[in-house]
């Protein structure tokens, strides 16, 4: 049975979601492709890469930041950087009326718009690379596991009514395909997180995680330069053999792409100087490889 209530919530594509202190499977955030399994399974959520454990409990926000025009040709972008980050304590009631959900999300969407995404990390906290994400179907979802259980499907679709039959596969499929089935203004967002095509970030994205007191407080998917394609479990993903100062430059100074004589170049900026490099095996925006 499909649900009018569910369709109305998906039209909102809430920008806020929550993670509990004891999330399903012990994983706060997962990265997955298009999924539609009718049985609950941790494997379908983590088969593309390991999820992010030890996330700070509370309410998180989804946001996409466009970049790619500064110093680039008009047809080179824009691309996106995609973020989910902690904003407040609390949880969101999945059984609340659609109107209440819409009011809550729209009010906070206006408030959250004032947040400078480049300044979301507290002093002393830095982005640390945590592998990458690739799916040959090109779909990328960053989702809180709180929204991916059968119980969550009942709450979202039927406000927790136990007598209703839940089409769990349809529920998961709708969430993970919202980038193509939803409204254009919601194309990067979905219930419980974000959903988009990989090339929206300029190719298969790299993952960066910011932690405070041992807990993830922000996660970023971005186009990486020279980062290792490391699918290690997040808790072991820090590149301790590298230079952290160089990693910070990597994340802060990247501007975008440009074409020169038919070759893709990476545009970098350091101490006010803009330069270009032609990296090895860089995926292009047109092909993704």
From TrEMBL:
Q: Which organism is it from?
A: Oidiodendron maius (strain Zn)
**Entry superkingdom:** Eukaryota
Name of this protein: Uncharacterized protein
């Amino acid at each position: 049975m499909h649900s009018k209530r569910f369709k109305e919530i998906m039209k909102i594509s809430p920008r806020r979601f929550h993670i509990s202190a004891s999330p399903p499977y012990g994983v706060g955030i997962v990265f997955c492709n298009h999924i539609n399994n009718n049985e609950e399974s941790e494997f379908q959520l983590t088969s593309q890469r390991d999820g992010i454990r030890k996330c700070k409990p509370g309410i998180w926000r989804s946001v996409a930041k466009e970049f790619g025009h500064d110093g680039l040709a008009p047809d080179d972008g824009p691309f996106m950087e995609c973020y989910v980050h902690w904003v407040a304590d609390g949880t969101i009631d999945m059984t609340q009326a659609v109107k209440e959900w819409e009011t809550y999300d729209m009010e906070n969407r206006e408030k959250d718009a004032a947040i400078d995404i480049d300044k979301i990390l507290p002093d002393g906290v830095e982005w640390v690379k945590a592998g990458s994400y690739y799916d040959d179907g090109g779909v990328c979802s960053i989702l809180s596991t709180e929204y991916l259980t059968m119980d969550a499907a009942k709450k979202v679709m039927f406000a927790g009514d136990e007598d209703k039959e839940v089409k769990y596969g349809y529920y998961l499929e709708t969430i993970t395909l919202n980038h193509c089935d939803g409204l254009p203004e919601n194309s990067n967002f979905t219930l419980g997180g974000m959903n988009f095509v990989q090339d929206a970030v300029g190719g298969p994205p790299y993952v960066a995680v910011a932690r405070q007191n041992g807990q993830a407080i922000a996660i970023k998917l971005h186009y990486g330069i020279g980062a290792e394609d490391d699918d290690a479990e997040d808790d072991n993903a820090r590149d301790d053999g590298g230079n952290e100062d160089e990693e910070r430059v990597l994340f802060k100074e990247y501007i975008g792409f440009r074409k020169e004589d038919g070759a893709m170049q990476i545009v970098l900026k350091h101490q006010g100087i803009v330069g270009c490099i032609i990296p090895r095996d860089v995926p292009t925006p047109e092909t993704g490889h």
